[in-house]
Amino acid sequence: MATLAPSAAKTGTVDPLDVSRAELYRDDTWHAPFAEIRAKGGIHYTADSDYGPYWSVASYKPLVEVESLPDLYSSEAAGITIADFKEGVDVKMPMFIAMDRPKHTGQRRTVAPAFTPSEMTRMTQNIRDRTADILDTLPIGERFDWVDTVSIELTTQMLAILFDFPWEDRRKLTFWSDWAGDIELVKNDELRQQRLMHMFECGAYFKNLWDGKIGKEPTPDLISMMIHSDAMAEMDQMEFIGNLILLIVGGNDTTRNSMTAFAYGLDQFPDERAKLEADPSLIHNTVQEIIRWQTPLSHMRRTATQDTDLQGHAIKAGDKVALWYVSANRDESVFEDADMIRVDRPNARRHLAFGHGIHRCVGARLAELQISLLLEEMAKRRLRINVAGEPERVAACFVHGYRSLPVELSRY
């Protein structure tokens, strides 16, 4: 349970529309406060929270407006999460998603070749084969944890390939990702320090991989791409670690939580699951719909660089602006019956789960490919996932996901 901010504890009041509270996501009760914010125009100011004062942008249209003005709403000024940097406890680790132009452009351009259509074609058979291997080991009619056995394993394997990371150590990537993405740690200085220690461990491990590739011919992995680029070859230690964390969290949490949402979500909507089972041509649209419905990262943060007006709200220079993708993807003015999964939803691709504008997820194509191939291989085997108990959800307002999900498989 999140603790109250000092001012909230003093007054004994909590803003019911403070959507940063961890329990809302742990208990899956975030829908109502966001629906209220959207009903009031989609923008709300919270004066007191565990993360200090902030603006919530919770509807589709104003969120797109903010994302479309990256010079006015900065990613670099104060980071990309609602949590603030704490002097004396935190160490700044720059990453290109938390940079503004022009530096953002050069570093993003460096890693983008790993996610081109030609690279997706090159990797497809490998992803399909690994997915098939895992599915063929799953028990039928026996309970197991879908998150650990399928979602984490598939995404961690993919990360190991992208980084040319030692296969036997690949679960380290999951461990580092979980520590890096846990926004709740900022409320405890001891845990903040533990996270810092793990991030340095991550950096030291990757520094050895980096050193082993210096002077070698280019290879199609992310470390080699960084070494052979003007924009990233001379990164200092903190920037190196920061970009590694970005790529690990981006490649791990988003895809694994969408894969779990596929298992959990279709079980909640059996009529939609039946449509998909009857018509596998709906798989690619279903992937977009699952990503919309889940929204694996709840928010990103921007900081206003000057006084401005956002749809009638006076935003001051320095104000913290939280972009709640998890809510914009449930905006009924854009997505009819937005709380439902519709495998044939005509505008599913309009979702904002990958962001919008210059910071749109660079690895979106790869995430879509991995999830699509999982659904295709499930359909080939006529496998159905039956949820066998309530999921354990991540208790945090940044990564929107699952710790575990008990399931049993059957054939249809």
TrEMBL record:
Family, as annotated: Belongs to the cytochrome P450 family.
InterPro entries, alphabetized: Cyt_P450, Cyt_P450_B, Cyt_P450_CS, Cyt_P450_sf
NAD among keywords: no
Name of this chain's protein: Cytochrome P450
Alphabetic keyword roster: Heme, Iron, Metal-binding, Monooxygenase, Oxidoreductase
Domain of life: Bacteria
Alphabetical list of PROSITE patterns matching this protein: CYTOCHROME_P450
The keyword ATP-binding belongs to this UniProt entry's keyword annotation: no
Organism name: Sphingomonas japonica
Pfam families (UniProt xref): p450
